[in-house]
Amino acid sequence: MGLTVTRSARLFSADEPLALTSGRTLGPIDVAYETYGTLDEDGGNAVVICHALTGDAHAAGYHGDETRPGWWDTLVGPGKPVDTDRFFVICANLLGGCQGTTGPSSTMPGTDHAYGLDFPLLAMGDFVEVHRALARHLGVTRLLAVIGGSLGGMQVLDWSLRYPDEVANAIVIAASSRLTAQNIAFSAVARRAITSDPAFHDGQYAARGVNPDVGLAIARMMAHITYMSEDALDEKFGRMPQGDVRAPGFGIDFAVESYLDHQGQVFLQRFDALSYLYLTRAMDYFDPFATLEPVPRERPVRYLVLSFDSDWRFSTAHSRRIVRHLEGARCPVTFREIEAPWGHDSFLLTVPDYHDTVRAYLDRALEVGL
Predict the structure, then answer these.
(1) How far is Cα 237 from Cα 215, in angstroms, rounded to an integer?
(2) How far apart are CA 133 and CA 155, in angstroms?
(3) What residues does each domain of the chain span?
(4) What is the sign of the dihedral through the CA atoms of 291, 296, 300 and 303?
(5) How far is residue 86's CA from residue 364's CA, in Å, rounded to a whole number?
(6) Residues with a known catalytic role
(7) How far is CA 188 from CA 65, 185, 192, 293, 317, in A?
(8) Which residues of 133-144 are buried (b: 16+ CB within 10 A; e: fewer)?
(9) Which of 142-156, 244-258, 279-293 is the least confident region?
């Protein structure tokens, strides 16, 4: 795709703030976003990408002199399933994030310090309201498709249920409509690792010039285990030793330990601990079908729901639950479980059956139109 540029837009102000699901308001709100491709004159080819927990606005291409590709470069770009030669693609760093969009690490208006834990709690609907505002800012009122995996897929589902007149197609990948106790438990341990770090300082660590690196790295390490399947870890590492196996201890003795340690350390360079707390908590409380049960419509949203057979974090059972609710409301739903050995992370990888399915679905969506 080549070089891409991250832009920023102020979508809400102190005088016209965003009304949050919690009843509080928030403003100003700046949003970091990228776009790829060209919007058709009739506006009929706009696609929004919603990112997962640790993603950002940089979904595709390369930044300036950086060599880091977009986090969904496998799927988005010229000639790829989300073909930027045909679609106008929008991706924004979500509210509460830490890559250019207002979040808990942003400076609180009227002060010289970050919001910290004074930042309001967020819900999935708050993420969606900011995405909607950005689409309007870019001149788009109805979307050909909204696409997302994991937390991104949860945003897609929420958007399509709240505002079905704005979305023609919703592609929900490796996502959930309601976290299980096990999923909530994983996030609870991750958050506790962060808040128990002595450097956390009740969320005001930036003011003290420190960072809860140990807690955040541990949170990432544990989460990363849940993103991979057992078979994928065995194939990649097995019981391969790291270093001198003749002198075992409590350090990094196995290759898989070295890998997880590396993942945790790299994560510190690009993510904020407070954003991790806020975004995972929003996931915990997401339960759209409790209040947003779809109803039969003359022009319903068309859905593609995909899962991966080795994904145990958001297993196929999560996707089937989504499908049951949608089918109960007579929404057009295409569902497929994809074979892939890599677990939850499969949605970020090049899996031919997965990519072919998305490509075929979007080809048909473009033929049918808005």
Answers:
(1) 25
(2) 14
(3) 3-179+288-368, 183-282
(4) positive
(5) 13
(6) 150, 311, 344
(7) 38, 5, 6, 28, 22
(8) bbbeebebeebb
(9) 244-258
Token code pair at residue 116: 């910290």
**Plot region of 294 (φ>0 → left; ψ -120 to 50 → alpha; else → beta):** beta
The residue behind tokens 């927990």 is 53
Which helix or strand (DSSP H or E) is residue 156 part of?
helix 151-162
Beta strands in 274-332 (DSSP E): 302-308
Give Cβ neighbours of residue 139 (< 8 Å, ≥ 6 apart).
39, 43
**Between vectors from CA 221 to CA 220 and to CA 225, what angle results, nearest 5°?**
110
Architecture of domain 3-179+288-368: 3-Layer(aba) Sandwich (3.40)
Residue type, 367: E
Task: Give residue-wise pLDDT tens across range 315-335.
Answer: 999 999 999 999 998 999 999
Nearest to 1 by CA among 55, 57, 62, 51: 62
Q: How confident is the model at residue 68 (pLDDT cuts 50, 70, 90)?
A: confident
Residue 243 has pLDDT above 80, yes or no: no
Matching CATH topology for 3-179+288-368 and 183-282?
Answer: no
CA distance 233 to 250: 21
Write the class of the CATH domain 183-282.
mainly alpha
Phi, psi of 82 (to 5 degrees): -95, 85
